[in-house]
Amino acid sequence: MTDTRTVTREEVVAALARIVDPGTGKDLIAADMAKAISVSGDSVSFVIEVDPARGAEMEPVRAAAAAAVEALPGVARVSAILTAHSAEPQPSRTSTPKGPPPDLGTGGRRKPAQPADKRIPGVDRIVPIASGKGGVGKSTVSANLAVALAAQGKRVGLLDADVYGPSQPRMLGISGRPSSPDGTTILPLRNHGVTAISIGMMVPEGEAVIWRGPMLMGALEQMLRQVQWGGLDVLLVDLPPGTGDVQLTLSQKAEVTGAVVVSTPQDIALLDARKALDMFRKTETPVMGLIENMSTYVCPSCGHEAHIFGHGGAAREAEKLGIPFLGAVPLDLDIRLAGDGGAPIVAAKPASPQARAFLDIAERLAGLDAMR
Ligand SMILES: Nc1ncnc2c1ncn2[C@@H]1O[C@H](COP(=O)(O)OP(=O)(O)OP(=O)(O)O)[C@@H](O)[C@H]1O
């Protein structure tokens, strides 16, 4: 008979209070190691914050905690993640790590990553999508590019690392939490031909933004290395806006093929885009091109084309900087409605001129040497 009981957060806390860390003799609740406990229907997720030096020895504790929660009536899925809370560097791994992710550390303690460590098994190319500031449509562009590349026959993954507003679950119409049948690897979700994982699926809604640096870095590392991507031609990474820790970590932890920067044509957005480009130069990350979003506005009633933000700024900027201009996307109600409704315009209306804009950009991107 199916159990229709709903588990409560208190029951999860009580189960975790029965799991003792042999190193300290304290349980996970008393030691304040169980964080971000979230119950959503029959899915439970939590993070166990550990000293990275004890990563390997804590895996059995993580497994025991996951099993104890899974045994509770009303629980069907458990995501239990080990994460580091201090800055000790960890040995790097090339496959399915079990302990906490390596920590970036600070200043002089940071070790340069070895190139061999930076490859993600099964992932041929990593292409972050960045923007200098929020709200320029980076997530909309990422989702549509992912669907467009998939429509062109590429095996595409999309990793949503936008901690300030993880919107890919909504844009790609995927919900629920990814499962981890073996407690170590994470199974991604899939829709519109795109394999996806989002930081929004890994942590309770609204909580990612308050995570401290090392926890975020841990989550990023886990999304890169523990997700069963299953063979990808390209993994797009929807970065948070700006030039923070996540951008830095990605370029240090993974072999990035080249970044794509999204901007609106406004001067101020272009100024911010320049900062993002500067950051990529400093981290020696190649830039594959600039995309202008919300370029022109075509009135749905009369067809008049207005250049609200002064169209063409990004193309001129790209030329000035000597980077490819990948194309422009109009400001269009259907693009917003489609993306916000769970089917990017390329999936919802593939024959529309708006979808064509994204398909053309995807073709230009796919035609670059780094993508062939
Ligand atoms: N070309 C466009 N036409 C119409 N609406 C758009 C377009 N691009 C994005 N939008 C809408 O603008 C809003 C912000 O877009 P989106 O979330 O993609 O931006 P973002 O740069 O990823 O933002 P942030 O990273 O700050 O969350 C969304 O509601 C989206 O549907």
Write out the strand line-up for the largest beta sheet, numbering strands in chain order: 8-9-7-10-6-11-12-15
Average pLDDT taken over every residue: 83
Bound heterogens, unique: adenosine-5'-triphosphate
Taken from the alpha-carbon principal axes, the silhouette is elongated
The beta-strand count equals 15
> What structural class results from the helix and strand content?
alpha/beta
Terminus-to-terminus distance: 53 Å
CATH architecture label name of the largest domain: 3-Layer(aba) Sandwich
- CATH H-level name of the largest domain... which superfamily? P-loop containing nucleotide triphosphate hydrolases
Quaternary status of these chains?
Answer: single chain
SSE order, as H and E? HEEEEHEEHEHEEHHEHEHEEEHEHHH
Q: Give the number of helices.
A: 12
CATH class of the largest domain: Alpha Beta
- Radius of gyration using CA atoms only: 21 Å
Uncertain segments: 86-115
**Helix share, percent:** 25-40%
Domain module tally: 2
| Beta strand % | 15-25%
Within the CATH hierarchy, at the fold level, what is the topology of the largest domain? Rossmann fold
Question: What do you see in this structure?
Answer:
The chain is α/β, with parallel strands linked by helices and 372 residues long. The chain folds into 2 domains: 9-102, GMP Synthetase, Chain A, domain 3, CATH 3.30.300; 119-371, Rossmann fold. It is built from 12 helices and 15 strands. The protein has an 8-stranded mixed beta sheet, with helices on both faces. A hairpin with a 2-residue loop joins strand 3 and strand 4. Helix 3 crosses helix 12 and helix 6 (213-225) packs across helix 7. It is elongated. It starts with 8 loop residues before the first helix and ends in a 5-residue tail after the last helix. Residues 86-115 have low confidence and may be disordered. Bound molecules: adenosine-5'-triphosphate (ATP). Residues 131, 134-140, 162, 165, 167, 241, 293-294, 329, 331-332, 335-336, 339-340 line the site of adenosine-5'-triphosphate.
